[in-house]
Amino acid sequence: MSDHVPIFQHSWTGDEQLYEELTDKQWKILKAALTVFTEKGYSASTTSEIARVAGVAEGTIFRHFKTKKEILLATLIPLMQNFIGPGAANSLHDLVLQYDNLPIEDVLMLVIEDRQKHITALWPVLRIVIIEANFHPELRDVLLNNVVKKVQESFLAFLKQRQSKGELRDDLDVWTMMRTIVGAAAAYFVSRSLFPEREQDHDNRQELKAIVDLFLRGAQVDVRY
Amino acid sequence: MSDHVPIFQHSWTGDEQLYEELTDKQWKILKAALTVFTEKGYSASTTSEIARVAGVAEGTIFRHFKTKKEILLATLIPLMQNFIGPGAANSLHDLVLQYDNLPIEDVLMLVIEDRQKHITALWPVLRIVIIEANFHPELRDVLLNNVVKKVQESFLAFLKQRQSKGELRDDLDVWTMMRTIVGAAAAYFVSRSLFPEREQDHDNRQELKAIVDLFLRGAQVDVRY
DNA sequence: CTACAATATGAGTAAATACTCATATTGTAG
DNA sequence: CTACAATATGAGTATTTACTCATATTGTAG
Question: Which residue has the least CA–C1' distance to nucleotide D20?
Answer without folding.
Answer: B59
